[in-house]
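Question (not urgent): is this output format expected?
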Amino acid sequence: MYPHNPTGIVDFILNIPSTFMDLNFFMNRRFIISTLSFIILFLLIFAQIGLADYPDGYYGVRRVIDGYTFELTDGKLVRLIGIEAPEAGEACSIESTQQFSSMIEGEIVFLEKDVSETDASGRLLRYVYVNSTFVNYQLVYSGYAYATEYPPDTRHTSLLFDAEDNAQSFQRGCLWYTVCINCDGDTTWVAASCFIATAAYGSPIDPHVQILRDFRDNHLLTNRLGRRFVGLYFSYSPAIADYISKHESLRTIIRYSLLPVIGLSWVTLKLGVNFTLALVILFGLGTILLLRFKRKGEKNP
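Got this back:
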């Protein structure tokens, strides 16, 4: 019942706080603080999403630049998360770019963010979908890109590595298939990946593996003897690599064993074949002379 006189109205208004305090609900400090915190957090998240230049959603693709980078219709560059593809001039780079282009160029794609917004070059870091196809996954599964991990953007890392294992097992795409090059009546098979080195170092994009691959492409495949050696290597290396990959101790041994080969390959790539041969000859002569001096010293104490 409402009061019918001014004094009663004043008393009623003054008694409102005590009435609510008796409820012990709205005046519960913990409840108030929790509620306000939730409201503030919700507003901040909503504001961030609303103000983001490139929130998750659909965007038009203007062109593909390489095997993992493309340009939106507004000129912004996007880099696919979780994959690597051969760089320009490397084996499979053209095929990788063409495959990527055939999937998304001129299409409307859905961009999905993981944790990072952009990379050091300012490119958007995104997972990309066209229709029902997960593009990052499909490029790896088809053998046109490698799976790789760049924390903190690791939401689909295990899925992408499983796709790479499957592509390698079935030799799909230009990264894992074998083809005959300059056969000249002989059967010479080459592939874009170095199986044993990849098994030893754990990744086809490891710098050590890249040195060996570059040495093969720039030197061994340029002559008949080198092509014969590469053909022999690829006849046996897949099975050997599979065995190595399952034994960590063996992987360690192979890594150390490959270091001299990788070192010579690096010198050859940087300084040429002639300089490397001269260096090897000098090293061999030096070793022989040291052994002779050592023997003479042992005979004449």
